[in-house]
Design brief:
single chain, mainly alpha, Four Helix Bundle (Hemerythrin (Met), subunit A), two-stranded antiparallel ribbon, 2 strands, 3% strand, globular, MDMPI_metal-binding, Maleylpyruvate isomerase
Length: 227
């Protein structure tokens, strides 16, 4: 399968809101699979075990996703009130907060993640159509409309559900989301038709490859990390 820019259906705002709900449910299911290792074998998915992201445990990952909900909530607040509110105080503070989150008890992390997801959803529900058109600035210092926030969150919860390393794969994601994700990443990576020549495979594999995750396609050139 080859993904061509402009040939996939354009995602809508309602799509992104729906994908947040679906991705959050998938990630929550993954978190609910975590627990202490079997003391007799050391097996089992553990909160403090390694995620699929280099250098991060699952606690780092869950803390990052929880903090992301709070950070995107800052952008929603900016759109609602007109008072500038950046996602993070600084890149250094963001990284320090993730490291601190990795030291928290599992129950506290899970509660923070669930609370943040609920509060972000409630905050988005409050915005008017006019407020969604307000401009905000992302952590990458890119100016975007607030209406892009739901898509930003949908990507986070779906892709990091895979990164949790509990058996969730890109094949567990909705096809319409995978098409939008593949198109979005290809655009951001500025991949040409020549770059994609010979890259064929099922949609989940193509999306995983574009996202720099394990994909199982032997002939696809390796890409750097994304998200």
């Amino acid at each position: 399968m080859t993904i061509l820019i402009g040939t996939t259906p354009r995602r809508t705002f309602d799509d992104s809101r729906r994908w947040i709900a679906e991705g959050t449910a998938l990630l929550t299911d993954g978190i609910d699979r975590l627990g202490p290792a079997d003391p007799s074998t050391g097996s089992g998915h553990r909160f403090d075990g390694d995620s699929q992201l280099p250098g991060w445990t699952r606690k780092h990952l869950i803390g990052h996703v929880a903090a992301n909900a709070d950070a995107l909530g800052n952008l929603v607040s900016w759109a609602e009130t007109g008072a500038e509110k950046r996602m993070y105080a600084s890149p250094e503070q963001r990284n320090a907060d993730i490291e601190e989150a990795a030291t928290r008890p599992a129950d506290e992390l899970r509660a923070w993640y669930l609370r943040g997801a609920e509060e972000l959803d409630e905050a988005m529900d409050r915005l008017t159509p006019e407020q969604w058109e307000h401009e905000v600035i992302t952590a990458q210092l890119v100016t975007r409309k607030a209406s892009d926030v739901p898509w930003m969150r949908a990507r986070e919860v779906f892709v990091h559900a895979v990164d949790l390393g509990v058996g969730i794969t890109f094949a567990d994601m909705p096809e319409d989301f995978l098409l939008a994700l593949a198109d979005d990443i290809r655009t951001k990576r500025a991949l040409s038709d020549d770059d994609l020549r010979g890259v064929t495979g099922p949609l989940p594999g193509v999306a995983a490859w574009l996202a720099g995750r394990p994909h199982g396609m032997a002939d696809a050139p390796e890409l750097g990390p994304w998200l």
